Amino acid sequence: MRAELDGRVAHLYGLTEDEFKHILSTFPLVDQKVKDDALQAFRDLARPEGDPEVVRLVRGGESQRVEFKSSMRVPVEGSAPSKELTATLEGVIIKEIAAFLNAEGGTLLIGVDDAGRGLGLVPDYASSPNIKDRDGFERHLRGLVDVALGKTVAASLKVTFGGLDSKEICRVDIPAGDQEAFVQVTDRSGQKRHALYVRSGNKAEEIPGGPEQTKYVRKRWKWYS
Fold first, then answer.
1. Which residues form the Schlafen AlbA-2 domain (predicted)?
2. At a CB cut-off of 8 Å and minimum separation 6, what does 89 contact?
3. pLDDT score of 47
4. What pTM does this model have?
5. What's the mean per-residue pLDDT of the chain?
6. Is the pLDDT of residue 224 over 60?
7. Where are the domains of the chain?
8. Which fold has domain 52-224?
């Protein structure tokens, strides 16, 4: 609460982040963690800036129709990059796209953290010589979707790039699918299976096979009943 109050006061005075950092540095007797928490609160309370439509989506937060992902291929929390981790992150993107297809459709913003801050796509661009810019990023993304969900789905996506907090981010608009989209996953025993994910609130959830899945499919795509 103290950190949030300090952050709000700094915003009320119209301070920039650098000015607030300087002010915090002038209190040598204040514990560094207190200063760090106040600065983080200041950042969390900052209004997003960028393309108006992207800002509108970010201000609304994650929801049934909107999802944020920090990256497509590169971990942002400090984990060492690896082929396995890259494959896992790409798999998450596919799962989210499938979940929107199997529900009402929606928008996936890549390069945006859970708090709605723009992180950008530079790490993903640098992850492969074949990506390196927005054109390569879009080709790679559509290629992943093509392999996992099919060419028709890949072609149905609307992929655009916009600005958020002075960073370039990727916006993927996904239509509601005209048939169910299954994602191939590997369980703990190493067995591969096909999973049905749907958007439920602000996250993707799997509907297990059996009567529950059949009921959802019949309700969602009425011609199956």
1. 62-206
2. 71, 72, 73, 74, 75
3. 65
4. 0.80
5. 90
6. no
7. 2-45, 52-224
8. 3.30.950
